[in-house]
Each structure stands twice: as structure tokens, then as C-alpha cells.
């Protein structure tokens, strides 16, 4: 495996008033990595995501993607640099069709001026056709092409989640951030999702950072895991290392007393944690 | 996935044709309205149709901001007034300097009319520039707060126009002390009067058709989808790489341009341009058209502009409407039968349209009959009826006549979607 790091975040942090939401967050992900970011409720996982994607501006530290500085950039510039994401609470363009949802994400890789749009220049037509082919291809991979003309909000919950991943991939990202993709899924759906995530990485050569609440999914799919608690990184390592880390156990289960923790590996989707 | 497949690029000639045919079609439509529909309908309906055409330009362009992009603007009349005053300055003082008199010069498609068109386009440019300025606050504000900013813009335009100087009617005055560059001699609170009447069916419907074409091409393009994504979810749009600041301002600029052109046409349609035209009452007329037609639906907004533009005129003589009741009743019965008895989707849809349209017509006819029966002139109550109609639409169609859809969406059968086809290995669908 190539060891060049695709994402290189060094000591990024933000505080809201006196609350240090995330501090000194350091994460390196090599090209093709499948990494996880976990932590109990309110640990700062989503805030860390928002820092990386430019929703919040970092107050300390630097972040770079593929050698290009991305801290301080606007969200759309970061998307253009090759970082795309999904949302914890699904944020599809509900009133628009499934196809349009994906086409909107194609925009960043092929756009045209207003004049070209109005006179339907050759450039415009070629690009529109290419975008539609690309979008249909992605939809068919996720088995969503039969819903092409449906409104996105009319899809079933699991399909909406898949459409979000599909949409994020249409921006042709180098790094894909998945924000709790398994939230609200049943065990079978989680199992399918885990397979999907692995195949996205393997077939598309994408690098993935998975933010998850569900320990089973993370332990099952990720190569390395970072654990956040109270905005601080408390552990980093392979799934077995993290599972046996006393700090992690403490963060998840509270103070350890006489009963030893059980670092068993639950089957994928067996829902170790409340979601 | 490959974007650069050569087969996707059409030839140069085809590209040129795609750019030009809407203009030709619009010109053809304008000529048909000018020489066929206008003379057939008579002078008064022609005036109404011209006002309707101008209303279409304004409503469809406002729809780009309010409907597509979801930014609530209620200052559209301000852009219209700016465009109108700029165009009127060109024709009035331009005509005075060039042709000695500010009156009409030249015949159909003559020099005077071309001056009006050039002035309108210039007015559109001015309005677009102001649209850029008004669009900037939309980057920080949304909803009610942005509405207040746009409202303020319209009022500023109105007050500035009231503060303009006395209008000069003779060329000789231009050389005297009466002429000042600031405040410009645009008539002040009394309005800009005796403007040459250059606007006709041709120009109105040419520009109305161009506006609709432009709105449609924007909506079905990557720019339009960027607009729509901002309406749906700004945070998601940004994360997908949409520069929302750029596109919000762009929506304002495009909408303001067409409003400015419409203002030019309005100013030369035989009315006195007055500062009140920039006020929020005018703006609200267009907002109502957009809301009634359905936010983002070009066809819905066009229909709403036609209905709301023509309805007050129809209601001027409500007693005559009573004669239409057999047709209205027929439409209701036919529509009900089609929507209930037939299986085909497009027939059901058509039946529903007939049913709704027929019901409205029947309501109007009954209104007219009541007038005849009571031997009363109900035309005084036409604004009540107009408002009642708005209330009813909002109760039964809270998202406007067509919601976010276009008319043709209702006729498209679901079966048109290609069957599911799975490709690429490894992924569980």
C-alpha cells in the first residue's frame, strides 16, 4: 500500500466561547485508507468533520488534502479540492428528482458560464450529456436508477442514505467523509452498508473516513480508528488496539471498577452502542 | 464516466442553431401576436394582452430569485422602475435631441422603436448592476430579513425618483439653466409624462417568449440546478461544491435584467411612469403571481401571470360573464368524467385541469348571473372576488397551482423511467 498521506490534519481545533469543542485534532490518512472516527455522544466527531469540510473555520492547526492546504478554504472550494461528505441527518435536495440530486454534485467538475447556458453552446451540451451519463452510471451502481425521476424525499430511508453517498461520489472526491451512515439502519442494512463501503474503497480507489456511532460497523470495516472524547483524541490505532485501550473503555462505559471490560468483537451491525 | 467523449460534442452548426432558434421562434410569436391575434381581438384586449405579456416577463424573472433560488425578494418593481426610467430617458430626451420632438418617431420596427429596445436593454443592464448590489446582502440574510432588505431597495428607488427634477418638454430648454444633471429632469413626484408609445404586441411578446426560453434554459442547466440546490439546502449545496454566494448574486442579476427590460416596455406602453411604480404594492403583484403559480414552476407562474393579469379586466363587466355558464358547466362535467373514469394518466391529468378551470369559470359565471338577477353592478367588488380567489387557491393548493412542477410533468407517465439495470461488481444494491 502507498504510504503517502492524502489527508494530513495537524492540531486543528475550535472553541465556541469557553467550550473547546475540538482541540489538537491530528489525523493522517494514507491514500486508499479506510479509517474510522468514533467517540461517545458530544465528543466532537461532527465538529471535527465540519472543520475538515470548512463549515467551521479552524482556529488552530493546519489541514491539507493531497498536498494542498484546505484549512481556511470555503466549503465549496474544499469540495473542489476533492473532499466530499454525507450528513448525519440526511440532507438531500428533497423536492428535486433523484437524478437532479446527483447532477448537482456533478456541477463542481463541469460547469459553464451563463451565456453558454443560455445559448446552449456545444461545450454546455457536451458537458450536460457527460454529467447525465456519469450520474446514471453512479445511480445504477447503487441500484437507484429505477427511481431516477422520483423526488428524493419520496425514497425509502435506506435509499436516501445510499443516494447521499452516491451524490457525494459524483463530486469525484479523493477523500469521502461518511457521517454516521448507519444511523437508523437495521442489522441487515448495516451489513449491506459495510459491504458497500468496502467496495467503494476497493473499486473506486477512494479513501474513506467513517464517522460512526455503531462500534460493530467501525470495528468490522475500518483499518485504523481514532477515538475522540470531550474534543480530545484519546486513542488512535487498529481496531483491536483501540478496543483494549482503557481510556476508550472508560469513555464509552464509564469508570472501570472490578468487572473487566469485554473487548469482544461483535458481529457487524449487532449494535453495540445506542444510536 | 469519461467527460471528454467526442461523440457528446455536437457540431458547430448545430450549436449555432441551438442558440438562434429561440430568438427566431420568439420573433415569429411576436409577429403572430402583432398581426394576427391583436387585430382579431380589438384594441382594448390588445392593451390587456400587452400588460399581461409585461407581467409574464416580471413574474417569470422574479421566479428565478424567489422560486428557483428560494431567496425571498419583494423589491422586483424597483428593478422594473429603474429599467423603465433609464429607457424612457433614452427615448424621451434622445428623441428630443435627435428628432426635435420627444414624440413617436418612425413606424413599426422603425428607428424610434429600436431606440426604445436599445434603451430597454440599457435599462436592463442598469437594473442588473443594482441587482448585483441588492444580491450581496442575500449572502448573509435569508427569509424575512432578506425580504426587508429588498423591500427597502424598492422604497429607496421610489423616493429617489420622487426627488428628481422638473421634466423639460422643449429642446431649447436643454441649453438653459433649467437643465441639471442632478437631480435629473425625470418629472419628480408627478411622474415621467408624455413618453412616446413604442411598445406593441410584437416587442412585448418577443421579450416575454425570450424570458420564458431563458428561464427554461437556466432551469434545465447546471446553473439552474445550482440555484435549486440553494433553495433546497444551502449547507448540502456548499458541501457539494456549489459556490452559493456566486449563484445567489447571479440569480438576482439575471432577474433584475429582465425586470429592467420589462420596465422599458412598460414605460412606452402609453402610461405615465410614476415613482409609485417602484413601490412595494407593485412588487407584491409579482410575488403573488410567483406564489400562486408555484415557486419555481415556469409554466405555473406564466399561467398565474396570465390569469391575474386578465382577471381584473374580465371582472370589469361581470354581468356579461353569466353568459359563459353552459361552457363552464360543460367543462366541469367533462373534466369530472375524464378524471374519474379514464385510466390513462395524461387523461386523468387533463380532466383535473378541465375540472379546476371549469369550476373557476362556473364560479365567475354564477357571480355574473347573480349580478344580472340583482340588477346590480358587481364590478365594484371585483377586487374582493380577486382576493377571494387567491385565498381559495392558497387553501386548496398551498404550494401554488403546480407546486414545484411544470405543467408537462403531470402528463409524463411513470413508465417512462428506464427499467433498473445493475452494473459494476461487488456492490450490494
Structure characteristics:
heterodimer, A: 275 residues, alpha/beta, six-stranded mixed beta sheet, four-stranded antiparallel beta sheet, 23% strand, globular, disordered C terminus, B: 429 residues, mainly alpha, disordered N terminus
Secondary structure: elements and pairs:
The complex is a heterodimer of chains A (275) and B (429).
Chain A (H helix, E strand, L loop, with lengths): L4 E12 L2 E12 L3 E5 L6 H8 L7 E6 L2 E2 L5 H7 L1 E3 L12 H9 L7 H6 L2 H20 L15 H14 L4 E5 L7 H18 L2 E5 L3 H7 L2 E6 L2 E6 L1 H6 L1 H8 L22
Parallel strand pairs in A: 3-8, 3-9, 6-7, 7-8
Antiparallel strand pairs in A: 1-2, 1-4, 4-5, 9-10
Chain B lengths: L11 H30 L1 H26 L7 H24 L11 H25 L8 H19 L38 H19 L2 H11 L1 H6 L4 H24 L12 H14 L4 H17 L3 H4 L3 H17 L3 H30 L7 H15 L33
Run of helices and strands of chain B: HHHHHHHHHHHHHHH
DSSP summary, beta strand count of chain B: 0
Helix/strand-derived class of chain A?
alpha/beta
Overall shape of chain B: it is globular
The helix fraction of chain A, in percent, is 25-40%
* Main sheet overview of chain A: 6 strands, mixed
Rg of chain B (C-alpha, Å): 24 Å
How many helices of chain B?
A: 15
What portion of residues of chain B belong to β-strands? under 5%
Radius of gyration of chain A: 19 Å
Provide the structure class of chain B: mainly alpha
- Indicate the low-confidence ranges of chain A by residue numbers: 267-275
Oligomeric organization of the protein chains = heterodimer
Weakly predicted, low-confidence segments of chain B: 1-6, 414-429
Query: Could you state the order of secondary-structure elements of chain A as H and E?
Result: EEEHEEHEHHHHEHEHEEHH
Task: Describe, in plain words, how this protein is organized in 3D.
By secondary structure, chain A is of the alpha/beta class. Chain A contains ten helices and ten strands. Chain A has a six-stranded mixed beta sheet with strand order 6-7-8-3-9-10, with helices on both faces. In chain A, strands 2-1-4-5 form a four-stranded antiparallel beta sheet, covered by helices on one side. In chain A, a hairpin with a 2-residue loop joins strand 4 and strand 5. In chain B, 66% of the residues lie in helices and 0% in strands. The radius of gyration of chain B is 24 Å and the shape is globular. Chains A and B meet through helix 2, helix 3, helix 4, helix 5 and helix 6 of A and helix 1, helix 6, helix 7, helix 8 and helix 9 of B.
Amino acid at each position: 500500500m502507498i504510504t503517502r498521506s492524502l489527508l494530513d490534519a495537524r492540531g486543528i481545533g475550535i472553541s465556541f466561547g469557553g467550550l473547546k469543542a475540538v482541540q489538537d485534532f491530528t489525523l493522517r490518512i494514507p491514500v486508499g485508507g479506510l479509517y474510522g472516527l468514533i467517540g461517545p455522544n458530544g465528543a466532537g466527531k461532527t465538529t471535527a468533520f465540519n472543520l475538515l469540510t470548512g463549515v467551521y473555520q479552524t482556529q488552530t492547526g493546519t489541514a491539507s488534502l493531497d498536498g494542498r492546504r484546505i484549512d481556511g478554504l470555503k466549503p465549496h472550494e474544499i469540495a473542489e479540492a476533492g473532499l466530499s461528505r454525507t450528513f448525519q441527518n440526511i440532507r438531500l435536495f428533497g423536492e428535486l428528482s433523484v437524478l437532479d440530486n446527483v447532477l448537482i454534485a456533478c456541477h463542481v467538475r463541469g460547469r459553464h458560464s451563463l451565456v453558454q447556458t443560455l445559448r446552449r453552446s456545444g461545450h454546455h451540451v457536451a458537458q450536460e450529456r457527460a454529467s447525465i451519463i456519469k450520474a446514471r452510471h453512479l445511480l445504477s451502481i447503487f441500484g437507484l436508477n429505477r427511481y431516477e425521476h422520483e423526488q428524493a424525499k419520496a425514497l425509502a430511508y435506506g435509499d436516501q442514505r445510499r443516494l447521499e453517498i452516491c451524490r457525494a461520489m459524483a463530486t469525484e472526491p479523493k477523500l469521502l467523509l461518511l457521517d454516521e451512515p448507519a444511523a437508523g439502519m437495521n442489522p441487515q442494512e448495516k451489513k449491506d452498508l459495510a459491504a458497500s463501503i468496502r467496495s467503494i474503497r476497493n473499486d473506486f480507489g477512494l479513501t474513506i473516513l467513517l464517522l460512526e456511532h455503531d462500534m460493530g460497523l467501525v470495528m468490522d470495516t475500518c483499518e485504523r480508528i481514532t477515538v475522540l472524547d470531550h474534543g480530545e483524541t484519546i486513542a488512535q490505532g487498529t481496531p483491536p488496539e483501540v478496543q483494549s485501550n482503557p481510556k476508550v473503555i472508560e469513555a464509552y462505559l464509564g469508570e472501570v471498577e472490578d468487572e473487566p471490560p469485554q473487548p469482544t468483537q461483535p458481529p457487524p451491525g449487532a449494535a453495540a452502542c445506542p444510536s | 464516466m469519461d467527460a471528454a467523449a467526442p461523440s457528446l460534442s455536437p457540431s458547430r452548426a448545430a450549436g449555432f442553431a441551438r442558440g438562434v432558434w429561440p430568438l427566431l421562434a420568439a420573433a415569429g410569436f411576436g409577429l403572430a401576436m402583432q398581426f394576427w391575434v391583436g387585430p382579431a381581438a380589438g384594441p382594448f384586449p390588445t392593451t390587456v394582452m400587452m400588460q399581461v405579456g409585461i407581467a409574464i416577463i416580471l413574474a417569470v424573472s422574479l421566479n428565478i430569485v424567489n422560486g428557483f433560488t428560494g431567496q425571498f425578494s419583494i423589491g422586483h418593481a424597483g428593478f422594473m422602475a429603474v429599467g423603465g426610467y433609464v429607457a424612457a430617458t433614452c427615448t424621451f430626451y434622445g428623441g428630443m435631441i435627435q428628432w426635435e420632438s420627444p414624440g413617436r418617431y418612425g413606424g413599426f420596427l422603425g428607428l424610434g422603436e429600436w431606440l426604445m429596445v436599445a434603451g430597454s436593454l440599457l435599462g436592463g443592464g442598469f437594473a442588473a448592476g443594482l441587482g448585483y448590489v441588492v444580491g450581496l446582502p442575500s449572502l448573509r440574510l435569508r427569509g424575512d430579513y432578506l425580504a426587508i432588505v429588498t423591500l427597502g431597495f424598492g422604497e429607496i428607488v421610489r423616493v429617489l425618483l420622487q426627488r428628481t427634477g422638473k421634466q423639460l418638454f422643449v429642446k431649447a430648454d436643454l441649453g438653459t439653466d433649467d437643465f441639471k444633471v442632478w437631480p435629473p429632469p425625470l418629472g419628480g413626484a408627478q411622474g415621467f409624462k408624455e413618453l412616446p408609445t413604442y411598445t406593441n404586441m410584437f416587442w412585448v411578446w418577443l421579450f416575454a417568449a425570450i424570458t420564458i426560453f431563458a428561464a427554461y434554459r437556466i432551469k434545465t442547466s447546471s446553473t439552474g440546478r445550482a440555484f435549486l440546490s440553494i433553495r433546497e439546502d444551502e449547507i448540502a449545496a456548499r458541501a457539494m461544491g456549489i459556490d452559493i454566494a456566486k449563484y445567489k448574486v447571479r440569480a438576482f442579476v439575471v432577474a433584475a435584467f429582465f425586470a429592467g427590460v420589462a420596465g422599458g416596455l412598460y414605460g412606452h406602453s402609453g402610461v405615465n411612469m410614476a415613482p409609485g411604480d417602484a413601490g412595494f404594492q407593485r412588487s407584491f403583484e409579482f410575488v403573488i403571481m410567483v406564489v400562486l403559480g408555484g415557486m419555481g414552476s415556469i409554466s405555473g407562474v406564466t399561467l398565474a401571470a396570465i390569469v391575474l393579469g386578465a382577471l381584473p379586466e374580465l371582472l370589469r363587466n361581470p354581468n356579461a360573464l353569466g353568459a359563459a355558464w353552459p361552457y363552464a358547466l360543460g367543462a366541469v362535467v367533462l373534466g369530472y368524467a375524464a378524471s374519474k373514469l379514464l385510466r390513462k394518466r395524461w387523461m386523468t391529468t387533463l380532466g383535473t385541469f378541465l375540472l379546476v378551470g371549469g369550476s373557476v369559470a362556473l364560479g365567475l359565471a354564477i357571480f355574473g348571473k347573480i349580478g344580472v338577477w340583482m340588477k346590480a353592478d358587481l364590478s365594484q367588488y371585483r377586487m374582493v372576488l380577486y382576493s377571494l380567489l387567491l385565498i381559495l387557491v392558497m387553501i386548496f393548493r398551498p404550494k401554488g397551482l403546480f407546486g414545484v412542477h411544470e405543467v408537462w410533468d403531470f402528463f409524463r407517465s411513470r413508465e417512462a423511467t428506464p427499467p433498473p439495470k445493475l452494473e459494476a461488481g461487488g456492490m450490494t444494491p
